[in-house]
Amino acid sequence: MDQFSPRVYMPMVLFYPNHEFDSQRKIVEKSQRLKYSLSETLTQYYPFAGRQTSTSYINCNDEGVEFQEARVKSKLSEVLEKSEDEALDLVLPTGLSWRGVRNNAALVIVRLVHFDCGGMAMAVCMSHKLADAYAFATFLTNWAAGTCQPEEQVAPHFASWPYHEAIVPPGPDETMMWLTKRFVFHNSKIDQLKVMAAESGVKNPTRVGVLTALLYKCAMDASKANTGSFQPAFMNQLVNMRSKMVPPWPNSSAGNLYWKISVSTKDESDATLKSITEQLIKGKAQIEGVKIEDWNRPGFALQNFVYDFSDKMYLSSSLCGFPFYKVDFGWGKPIKVSLKGTMLDNMFILKDTPSGDGIEAIVSLNEEDMVSFQSQKELSLASLAEKAL
């Protein structure tokens, strides 16, 4: 799957308050420990310190990652009062979010940002060719363990995988423009959605399943409101395959290990919460118990991952339950973990809220569809996230 993954930087930021009211000297010591533990962690994650020279290969030449430091003349609390995009623009490396990774460029770029209060932001841009979101999280968790409790580090598992001549999907069009909004669904509202799905006849609906179905339905309804007619569409939901393989692959498996569940809405009768949720449940059942050799069988071949653009395409991914909020470098867990936007338009990314009391949905649509999307009746279950925290 590394070959099929886009050659772009994934932008993630973890915000840490200064719980201990550290002195300037202690802050400098923290920075030094981070650099040392990062270099030690890269001896295990050695491809991460390499360089990509072609579509299919990474040269593990130990050139290293890029580590930057910066200071923002504000308190962390003041930054988190801003909109999420404003806050992230202050701390992320400029111009890298979801942008293409050049040949021989660093595959991981870290930017440690210090605030006047002693709080910090850890901004990390990682090439999607190296890792999916789950591997990204386990890399950060291992690096954090190496900073304060090296004995808890878990060596990454680099799987042996059959080689395929990849038909590489096109990367994002960097000239396209779309709007990204964040919607928060509290657990009580998600429970209401599950009840609605169950009452319509869906068996054992899940939180992520019903919320993904709702977002897709609202996006299609928004598109219909703007075009005046129903447009056939499909949605690919990306799924972490580690626990679904037989035998299960360890959570420490590095690289990209995901697959897609496809939902087809050729007719307007398919575009219901019930139909979409049931298609997601059926698709999930079909990929349970997959073996490595199954990736070559008809209907599951890697070549089938290439998208069919004859209908309008939507893409969905869930980071819920991924261990980003467990990344503790020795001064506590992050109070906020943020992802900067999405790679494409017509895309939904779900992630845990900081307190675990709900799910945040990052939604990217074209401007017209976003206006209609926000006015959909079902979206009354969500609140629009105006601030970073």
Descriptive labels:
389 residues, alpha+beta, seven-stranded mixed β-sheet, five-stranded mixed β-sheet, 8 helices, 22% strand, globular
SS strand fraction:
15-25%
Broad shape: globular
Radius of gyration: 21 Å
Separate helix tally: 8
- Low-confidence spans: pLDDT under 50, at least 5 residues? none
- How is the main sheet built? 7 strands, mixed
Query: What's the β-strand tally?
Result: 14
The succession of helices and strands, N to C, reads EHEEEHHEEHEHHEEHEEEEHE
Task: Give, in spatial order, the strands making up the sheet with the most strands.
Answer: 9-8-10-12-13-7-14
Look at the structure and give the mean pLDDT. Answer: 90
Fraction of residues in H or I helices: 25-40%
Classification by helices and strands: alpha+beta
For the termini, the CA-CA separation is 34 Å
3D architecture notes:
With 389 residues, the protein is α+β, with helices and mostly antiparallel strands. 26% of the residues lie in helices and 22% in strands. The chain has eight helices and 14 strands. It has helices spanning 24-42, 76-79, 84-91, 133-148, 187-199, 207-227, 273-286, 367-374; strands at residues 9-16, 51-52, 58-59, 66-72, 108-115, 120-127, 179-186, 233-240, 258-265, 312-318, 336-339, 347-352, 358-365, 383-384. The strands form three sheets. It has a seven-stranded mixed sheet with strand order 9-8-10-12-13-7-14. Strands 4-5-6-1-11 form a five-stranded mixed sheet, covered by helices on one side. Helix 5 crosses helix 6. The mean pLDDT is 90.
